[in-house]
Design goal:
The complex is a heterodimer of chains A (195) and B (95). Chain A is built from 9 helices and no strands. Chain A is mainly alpha-helical. In chain A, helix 2 crosses helix 7 and helix 8 packs across helix 9. About 6% of the residues of chain A have low confidence. Chain B is built from 3 helices and no strands. Chain B is rod-shaped, with a radius of gyration of 39 Å. Chain B starts with 6 loop residues before the first helix and ends with a helix. Classes of the chains: A mainly alpha (195), B mainly alpha (95).
Chain lengths: 195, 95
């Protein structure tokens, strides 16, 4: 059993030759990476596949990992980011409708009206989040799912704290504008239906 | 969704929907086994490398020994045959 106080960098230095050290890093970061990928892909199946690929790639390259003042987590997030980007590129070539998303939509009719409205609101917001550029999605996931500070997010994304703060405000403004335009569109559609 | 969505309300909504999800225990355990137990202690293990090298060495030595025995067997057989022929020809000359 490894010392829980041992930092990621010491473990990363040993992980190339010591499977237990890699196992400890795996235990520490599997949930973070899984969450990140889950919110970037939107389904558990792809999140599992991509998480597995992230750790396989990390295992292959951990021996060459160098401490350049960036946290080990940032290195893992970078691998995850690249794999998710490849995944989105492949999917844009062969678009498919995720089954769980389809199931969620078809279940709406069984809920009471208020629950259905809340679900609709959640789905709309998730759709807006997924339409954002990758760096903005990454920022929101790290801020709300991982509860990281702007400085920590900056370390992971390779930007300054000020740049993250500014990106965050621009992201919220863009989301509000998108929500407003979607609301206007649906109001227009409702009024046309009544006519 | 409220059209005049305030920044604060949007942050609240994001906190509600972007919550940590837990990967399945089965997945976490299976992946750990694949990465650490099998891969880590498998081909990369120094003991495994020593065992493989020793086995290959023993196989090579055994096969070389077998080849040498077969070669020596052939040589002695040829020697016996030629010796018998020589003895036959010598008896013929004597008689």
């Amino acid at each position: 059993m490894k010392d829980p106080a041992m930092d990621d960098m010491s473990l990363a230095r040993r992980a190339g030759s010591d499977p237990e050290a890699f196992g400890e890093l795996y235990e520490r970061h599997i949930r973070k990476i899984y969450n990140y990928i889950y919110y970037r892909t939107g389904n558990h199946h792809d999140a599992e596949d991509l998480t597995e690929m992230v750790f396989q790639r990390a295992l292959r390259h951990v021996a060459t990992f160098e401490d350049k003042g960036v946290p080990f987590t940032a290195w893992l997030y970078r691998i995850a980011h690249n794999l998710v980007a490849n995944w989105h590129r492949d999917r844009s070539r062969r678009p498919v409708v995720p089954l769980d998303q389809h199931a969620a939509v078809s279940e709406v009719a069984e809920y009471p009206e208020s629950e259905a409205m809340a679900l609709e609101e959640t789905e709309l917001l998730m759709r807006i989040v997924r339409q954002l550029p990758p760096d903005r999605q990454e920022l929101l996931i790290l801020k709300f799912v991982e509860r990281m500070s702007n400085a920590e997010i900056g370390e992971v994304m390779g930007r300054s704290e000020g740049a993250i703060k500014s990106l965050y405000h621009r992201t919220l403004n863009a989301m509000r504008a998108e929500a407003r335009s979607l609301e206007e569109e649906s109001a227009k559609a409702r009024s046309e239906k009544k006519k | 969704m409220d059209a005049s969505l305030s920044k604060h309300r949007l942050e609240e909504l994001l906190s509600d929907i972007l919550v940590p999800v837990e990967p399945s225990v089965k997945f976490v355990r299976r992946l750990r086994a694949r990465l650490v137990t099998y891969h880590g202690r498998g081909p990369l293990s120094s003991w495994m490398v020593i065992v493989v090298i020793a086995t290959v060495f023993l196989l090579v030595v055994t096969s070389i020994g077998l080849i040498i025995r077969i070669f020596l067997g052939w040589v002695s057989l040829i020697g016996l045959i030629s010796n018998r022929r020589r003895m036959k020809s010598e008896t013929r000359v004597a008689t």
